[in-house]
Amino acid sequence: MVSIDLGGRIAVVTGASSGMGAETARVMARCGATVVATGRDQGRLDAVVEEIAAEGGTAVAVVADLAHGDSAQAIVAAAEKVGGRIDILALAAGHFVSTPFASTSAQELDDVWAVHVRAPFLLLQSALPLLSEGSSVLFFSSTVAQVGFAPYAAYSAGKGAIEALAKSLSIELAPRTRVNVLAPGFTGTPMVFKQFADAPGLEDGIVAKTPVGFLGGPESIAYLAAYLASDMGGYVAGTRMVVDGGWTAQGWQP
Q1: How many CA atoms are closer than 13 Å to the CA of 175, on its beta-carbon side?
Q2: Which of 33, 216, 227, 251 has the least CB density, counted as fewest CB within 10 Å?
Q3: For residue 92, what are the CA distances in angstroms to 39, 138, 142, 203, 218?
């Protein structure tokens, strides 16, 4: 039986208190990694770490707001204390804005940039000395970085910037570190369910345009992240992997 083996690896997962980040932390722990789980919400982050421990995994919680202060240094210091190195850096933290372009404030734009671009840039920069030989960095983007979808102009711009950054770093950090991008489509997370609640009919419309016929859960992203971080994904670098049930391939074909 083939399984994803992350045994002995130290994985830092941002945005680990909810959604894809939380599931990525759980899955990587199940695959044997020691997880440094970071997020802003102490209670939810502790709950994820407790779930991992209950399943026999190992994780520590680091409460940090990536958009402010010296959080990058605190996260890297925690990883160094846990294992002296970082083998996996999964940058799953996100901040969603759906304000129409004409109404988007400069503060909203700055907030998107701070969370999606500035924070992972600075965290990865701080983590460089600890990145191990053969390490893996995973940027979490979105299908909206490549396919227009209103009214997400600010959010799309942030995700597009992350993809450009990742592409450059996949060359600059090679061969020591592999850099890849995960681009989820609409996925069953609290952030997406909130969108559905605010826009009646959106979920049915998305599912109707998704060839597989259902809305995937965060595990669809988490297991791919674990694969990419493992030796099994050792020849995958500098690429963007879409996980959307075929939604972008379908487009708006009737």
Answers
A1: 2
A2: 251
A3: 10, 8, 11, 23, 11
Q: Do residues 13 and 35 make contact, with C-beta atoms less than 8 angstroms apart?
A: yes
CA distance 27 to 228: 13
Backbone torsion region of residue 234, taken as left when φ is above 0, otherwise alpha when ψ lies between -120 and 50, otherwise beta: alpha
Q: What end-to-end distance do the CA atoms of the chain give, in Å? A: 41
Q: Which residues are catalytic?
A: 155
- DSSP per-residue string spanning 109-131: HHHHHIIIIIHHHHHHHHHGGGE
**Orientation of helix 42-54 relative to helix 19-30, angle to 10°:** 20
Exposure of 102 in the CB half-sphere (CA atoms within 13 A):
0
pTM: 0.92
> Residues of 80-102 as b/e, b for ≥16 C-beta within 10 angstroms?
bebbebbbbbbbbbbbbbbeeee
How far is residue 121 CA from its own chain's centroid? 14
CATH code: domain 10-187+217-243 is: 3.40.50.720
pLDDT (tens digit, 9 = 90+) per residue, 183-240?
Answer: 998 876 777 767 777 777 777 777 888 889 888 899 999 999 999 999 999 999 999 9
**74, 81, 138, 146 from 161: Cα distances, Å:** 25, 32, 15, 11
pLDDT greater than 80 at residue 167: yes
Q: Which structure tokens are listed for 118?
A: 């500035």
Q: Rounded to whole angstroms, how far apart are CA atoms 142 and 159?
A: 6
pLDDT of residue 252: 59
